[in-house]
């Protein structure tokens, strides 16, 4: 028997993912983003707006922190409260007038999810035990959960070989932030003879929505062959049941272009260090883009099988096979090109 | 590699002027190599000291230049004065673990005092109101992981235990990595240190042995729920070198005895992130104290010692030599020492046990108790909740069940009469859930990390019941500063006095607290990286 809470949570993941529910406190920024979206009509405006939004996304998680009386930020341990309390003097242990338990600092994140969750209707108030007692803003114990961390994960840096071409492909992401809110940079592209032939760059605000899923909101900018393209991005990234890693992102771009990108990966451990990774990626576009060689509909689909060896957790060379299907943008008939390619590359992170 | 390089350098000793404390290589074989300080006035100097446990020299943070720090001998009833001098470049502190004292002497920076700034000192002064085996450690930054821990022996006003020999056995874990880097790795890949994960090869082996249906069923639920059945310890011997009295298994600490003597061994788990399973093959151990407090003697073959717990055992060795064997809970490594009649003797070292995967019991509890979840347990900070936790105390824990040895459980521990004096029934209950998200490596209580939490109020003078429900699949040693945790059995009767209560996966545990110590007190998981991950609260007694 699965604990009901867990099943509930599993069920809810998809509902929440579909709803793309954002906590109330973020609505101000979201409204801003939406009104920007509505105004998108001309390309030149679009790029300026995209840059502005990028700034908004970057600062959103941090401006909120600054707005609240957050006791955890920037604490100086040398200025803590009890310096003025003589040993044995307990008189100052009274409820702090500057703190009320009705306004806990970050509780809104969780409260927002609770509203949709019937199992939590009779749940306890986690602040009930405080009886109105609070921390003085000056007393805070330093814990590493409060610190920003940075990570770079190069999922694929690989050479692709076919009879006619040799390409270098990269697919990496980096993040900076705390546990529940991060700035995420994602990039994927191809380099042929020193030239970017195709490059997707995304700057996103990643927010932890459920235990295993992050929502992502931001911008995407494509460079390489043909015209550069800018997009707004909204999506999810996380782990589906059975440890399936998923990235699913929808994009709204210039001239009403809409795109959708899906990536799924699974790590199958053969031994503790030898790992077989099936991977699929699909890109779907609402409109044909001749200059970039993108067809409408399913423009390209890749499925690969990579076998990596983790010399260290952070450093794993691999070899693999990749099947790709791309629709021919220039032909009127719905023809497509299929290719099977050997890949060899490196998976690493720090 | 020359043998010497495996041993510790103790250059710091010369700098701190501890003349009586000889370099480790002169003392490797000696019976009691930990420096002992006794009396009522002490000076403890915190400084960086180069150490070498693995063949590579690293910088440790030490108290008086050694790992472990000197053993402090106190007497019940004395008032002790301890001047701590900080020669580090960062703030430090010393917490007297398990000691009953005024809150501003407790040594938790940001809660009980300001911490000890670099280049300054702080004088602790308090009356020693108890006796037994305790320990002390830094409560600042990452210093506990990098070497700041020592033992405390408090002689009772009247000693009732007779033993010809008396040894501290202080267990700990050392990493050559920067603890901040360890924490960052866990945040980025929480199974980074787990090299015991189920593989496809294991699956095919299970299919061959048990059939496809059973092998598939066993894995299905875990994988469906994105839980790892082999997450027994977040950090393994991949990075850890386990130490016993500051010595590696190779260096092999030795305690001497004469055949027929009663030997008292005071086990202290001063590790940052490691549960140890301890046994002395060929020797029965009689547990006489738990967490410094006298218990009805119980004789066992093996016990699991949680982080920050202490167990005093009496053994009566007859042969020439025995191995004290302490393996990590995840079975990735061990440390050992010798009990011998003369220096240089070594007994056979047992093989590590096979790691045992967690069971559905550890995930679901399957108990009759009903958990009352907090609203905040339904967000991104919590990856599982246990609705019906188990309440039995007679489970030795994962890896020790039905191993053919008599293993200590909490059901075996009963305080001697007179230890617990407050016989009032609890006036009220506080239920708290131990929660976490393994994938994000975030740890919390009621789904709320410390940085988002509010304090928990105990009314001064009340006797209350605390209920912990472990909503995770890890075992959490929960430590309340300043007040005792009087563990109840499943029927609600007070059973044993503790300062650390180990809560097993999917278990509900209840204990009583007498809120007789005004002030602010930390309350946290003593797994170091869980504490830093947010499983920490402040209690205010007022």
Give structural attributes.
heterodimer; A: 350 residues; twelve-stranded antiparallel β-barrel; 42% strand; disordered N terminus; B: 542 residues; mainly beta; six-stranded mixed beta sheet; 7 helices
Percent strand of chain B equals 35-45%
Strand order of the largest sheet of chain B: 11-10-13-18-15-16
Chain pair sharing the greatest interface: A-B, 79 and 87 residues
Compute the average pLDDT of chain B.
Answer: 92
Element pattern of chain A in H and E: HHHHEEEEEEEEEEEEE
> Which oligomeric state applies?
heterodimer
The helical percent of chain B reads: 10-25%
What is the helix tally of chain B? 7
Compile the SSE list and pairings:
The complex is a heterodimer of chains A (350) and B (542).
Chain A: H1 4-19, H2 27-39, H3 43-67, H4 107-115, E1 149-161, E2 166-177, E3 181-192, E4 195-208, E5 213-224, E6 229-240, E7 244-253, E8 258-265, E9 268-269, E10 274-285, E11 297-309, E12 315-327, E13 336-349
Antiparallel strand pairs in A: 1-2, 1-13, 2-3, 3-4, 4-5, 5-6, 6-7, 7-8, 8-10, 9-10, 10-11, 11-12, 12-13
Chain B: H1 11-16, H2 24-27, E1 36-38, E2 41-51, E3 58-63, E4 69-75, E5 79-86, E6 95-97, E7 121-127, E8 132-137, E9 149-155, E10 165-175, H3 179-188, H4 200-210, H5 212-224, E11 240-244, E12 254-256, E13 263-269, E14 276-279, E15 285-290, E16 293-300, E17 302-305, E18 310-315, E19 321-328, E20 334-340, H6 360-364, E21 428-437, E22 442-445, E23 456-458, E24 463-470, E25 476-480, E26 485-488, E27 494-498, E28 500-503, E29 508-514, E30 519-525, H7 528-533, E31 536-541
Helix pairs in contact in B: 4-5
